[in-house]
Automatic annotation (TrEMBL):
Name of this protein: Glycosyl transferase family 2
InterPro entries xrefs: Glycosyltransferase_2, Nucleotide-diphossugar_trans
Annotated organism of origin: Actinoallomurus bryophytorum
Family note: Belongs to the glycosyltransferase 2 family.
PANTHER family hit by this protein: RFBJ PROTEIN, UNDECAPRENYL-PHOSPHATE 4-DEOXY-4-FORMAMIDO-L-ARABINOSE TRANSFERASE-RELATED
């Protein structure tokens, strides 16, 4: 293996702190853990504090949506946490989804309208407070998947 190449190992988990520690500790040099956590309550998120790796809170779906958006002409790698647009032009997009499909519909309609989309990378950080409506529960994740699928299939 090319030693300058890094390989991400993606273990999904839900309240598996003990098992995760063993898995992450056993990774050979050149392998990084990219943990997909779906709302663990046992300290799973703290396991990676002193280890090589990253924690994603159900962000795998974000990567899939970003790939769909790129396929449809939006030059993005993330379904951004914030969007900035002129209010009038935004209203002219006639976005109909008022639930979890809104961010996807906004970007798809912006591409169709010929908007210039500029993505700026921002770091993911722990939430300052509260719980995510999506990744903090299986129900929220399923609702988001349902709404996004409806928008994507239009």
């Amino acid at each position: 293996m090319n030693m300058s190449m890094r390989i991400d190992v993606v273990p999904p988990c839900l309240s598996k702190a003990d098992a995760l520690l063993a898995v992450v500790s056993a990774l050979p040099s050149g392998f990084d853990a990219l943990v997909v956590d779906n709302g663990s309550t046992d300290g799973t998120d703290r396991i990676l504090a002193d280890r090589s790796g990253q924690l994603l809170y159900a962000r795998a779906g974000n990567a899939v949506l970003a790939a769909l958006l790129r396929y449809r002409g939006a030059p993005v790698h993330d379904v951004a946490p914030i969007r900035v647009a002129d209010r009038g032009r935004l209203l002219d997009l006639n976005i109909t989804d008022r639930a979890f499909g809104y961010p996807l519909e906004l970007l798809l309609r912006a591409v169709q309208a010929g908007w210039r989309i500029h993505e700026i990378d921002v770091p993911y950080r722990a939430r300052a407070g509260g719980k995510s409506k999506v990744s903090a529960s299986v129900r929220g994740t399923l609702r988001a998947a349902r709404d996004m699928t409806k928008v994507a299939c239009r």
